Amino acid sequence: MTSLSFAPALAALGLVATLSTAQAATAPQDVQAGTYQVETTHTQVTFSLLHFGFTEYSGLFSGATGSLTYDAAHPAASKLSVSIPVASVQTTSAKLTDELHGADWFDAARYPTATFVSTKVVPTGTGTANVTGNFTLHGVTKPLTLQVRYVGAGINPMDKAYTLGFQATGTLKRSDFGVKTYVPMVGDDVTLSIAGAFEKQN
């Protein structure tokens, strides 16, 4: 089915005229400066690690909240603060998901929130930067650097909010945060992948 097949339905919703705006990414230097808020429903934090040497197994956190102060003319001055509810963790195994909430893993009842607060932003190219900050998980705070790539910005045709999106990746050792169950049979090195959506507030 081609994209044209969806045209009548989109027209009925009044989206045809505005859809191209959402699909056309604004040049990084033209992104609107201001204060942004995490758009929770379209922000995802995934993690993956080696499972018994056989597969890279992944899970997902949702429900992130937080803020971003951004000015494309001065990207190094950007500030980011994000909170993630640990109990939101999901995997493809209901049993494992339940276990991850427990004391042997994330201990979500005792440590309900993971946070990242930026301390330094170093531009590395057009629309890319290394963002270093303090990452807190399982009651432990350690420095973490994220490799961040600008994805796009513009008016969201659904809610009409000016929206800014980034993709970020980073790695950490879970044992550094006191999450040591089954190390090294289940990998210690964890890769984070973050799809971050932000809506402009002012």
TrEMBL record:
Keywords: Signal. Residues 1-24 form the signal peptide. Residues 35-199 form the Lipid/polyisoprenoid-binding YceI-like domain. Coiled coil: none annotated. The keyword Nucleotide-binding does not apply. The keyword Signal applies. Gene3D superfamilies: Lipid/polyisoprenoid-binding, YceI-like. This is Lipid/polyisoprenoid-binding YceI-like domain-containing protein. It comes from Acetobacter malorum DSM 14337.
